[in-house]
Amino acid sequence: MSKSPVLAATTTSCPNLLELVESLAVDFASRAAAHDRDGSFPFENFEILHKAQLLSLTVPKEFGGQDAGYPTVCQVIEKIASGDASTALVLTMHYLQHANAAQTRRWHPTVYERLCRESVAGIALLNAARVEPELGTPARGGLPATIAKQTDDGWLVTGHKQYTTGSPILSYFVVWARTNEEEPRVGSFLVPRHFPGVRIEETWDHLGMRATGSHDLILEDVLIPREYGLDIRPLKAFAAPDPLKLAGVSLWLSALYQGVATAARDWLVGYLNERSPTNLGVSLATLPRFQTAVGEIEALLYANHQLIYSLATDIDLGQYDSKVGLQAQTVKYLATSNAIRAVEIGLELIGNPGLSKKNPLERHYRDVLCSRIHTPQNDAICLSLGKSALLYRRD
């Protein structure tokens, strides 16, 4: 595999993190269409991200990471997504796992430190494996079918997971499972990909985010050490998730799809300036109809920026309350809806060229539509908002 010309540059000092990330996004964008077309995984992008020390952004400083704040993580995700949304999604999931582990500190300390240091030293990515064929997403309730059986030698894990984003490159899977006890407990179990019994079925063939390698994970009597049982509790103990954990998921996904919509806007602006029909003699960018439509896109993207970064900054400053999780979900609902609408406006504006595979707008549209399937989904967010408002008024 040939190396990107940007790779060498990432090993040298850069005066500004965002300048570095912007240069990486441009490089990633040069390959994004090919990976999307083939459904191939962008391994080279993660080599570059490692060289740029961007895989340890949410790892605590005590273990060699950067412990970056919410706005910085949002900015990095947004910029990377503007180049390659699939790369950004895998990176976001990796960031979330480290951030959540750092916030809760419920993992075995030795195991946690080792994973952190591996993520600093090399390409050692991790992501959750939660969704199952029968259960669907655990966010909707229910016990997982994946079983962790306690033995004298450790945990024996068996199950089938779907939509395991980043599976071609992940070093570890954080598997949601239940114990086989009479009163089962549920929790996360750390499964290294190289352990016997771990298998990937290449099932991912989606409309959007095609290069994420979100294949099925098959676990067949995988024996893991006892300390790899990361956070095992009765199901009812998970009823009230940490508000900051919810905030991270929603804000960083919002930033990702803001990046996709911004890339679509940038391509559209370039197209409208370059396109000069012979019957007009001037570019489409000079016509009021097109200026008005692009103005609507600008308004949507501006609103998203304000929503995402104002809340991210408040979190970093400690200026938040117990409703921060729901507030971040509200941001996700609004920002992803705005992002989808922004790309749709571009498609409506230029017609057939927008749906041509030779132009990136149709890929951005397929990618931005994937924002609807990430937990929490829109109906769950609105239900929570409605309950909060109605109960508040009743009391």
UniProtKB/TrEMBL annotation:
Q: Show the Pfam families listed in the entry.
A: Acyl-CoA_dh_2, Acyl-CoA_dh_M, Acyl-CoA_dh_N
Record-annotated Acyl-CoA dehydrogenase/oxidase N-terminal domain positions: 28-111
Record's keyword annotation contains Oxidoreductase: yes
Keywords of the record: Flavoprotein, Oxidoreductase
Tell me the superkingdom of the source.
Bacteria
Q: Which residues form the Acyl-CoA dehydrogenase C-terminal domain?
A: 251-375
Task: Please give one Gene Ontology molecular function term for this protein.
Answer: oxidoreductase activity, acting on the CH-CH group of donors
Spell out the InterPro entries in the cross-references. Acyl-CoA_DH_C, Acyl-CoA_Oxase/DH_mid-dom, Acyl-CoA_Oxase/DH_mid-dom_sf, AcylCo_DH-like_C, AcylCoA_DH/ox_N, AcylCoA_DH/ox_N_sf, AcylCoA_DH/oxidase_NM_dom_sf, Mito_Isobutyryl-CoADH
Coiled-coil intervals in this record? none
User: What region holds the Acyl-CoA oxidase/dehydrogenase middle domain?
Assistant: 132-222
What PANTHER family is this protein classified in?
ISOBUTYRYL-COA DEHYDROGENASE (PTHR43831), ISOBUTYRYL-COA DEHYDROGENASE, MITOCHONDRIAL (PTHR43831:SF1)
Q: What is this protein called?
A: Acyl-CoA dehydrogenase
- Tell me the organism: Nostoc minutum NIES-26
